Structure prediction request, 153 residues.
Amino acid sequence: MRLVVLSLAAALVSATPALANEGRVEARGGVYWSNGYTQDAYGVAAGYDFDLGENAFTGMEVSADKIADTGTKVAFGFTGRAGAKVGNGGKLFAAGGYTTEPCDLCRGAWHAGAGYEQGFANNLYGKVEYRHFFTDNNRPDSNAVMVGVGMKF
Prediction:
């Protein structure tokens, strides 16, 4: 009986396609600017990417980012992304979503952007991403560029 169970398990494992879908966590830092105001920013993010074949992917991300001079206020982001797999371990993507208010006098805003992620050293990656925030409360739009380092699992 033991031999039958082991044989069935081996057959099941060998018949299951390899899944390259992956979760990820990262720490990041960068700069946030709007209409003459510039400040450093830092945060964390977690996400999950789904393969769409050999050359494309889509994913989602939740983030918590802090503009350095905004007291204890943290902006939470909810972002979708889609893009192309390029080179060896690279991902070029467009992203969009919603970010909660980053400061006491601010409101939440829709955002759109683009970025590049490069895998290295097995499960590690580096990422650079630009985001434009569409502010609709009679304030100028804002921008951010973040650079992150993370781990895939």
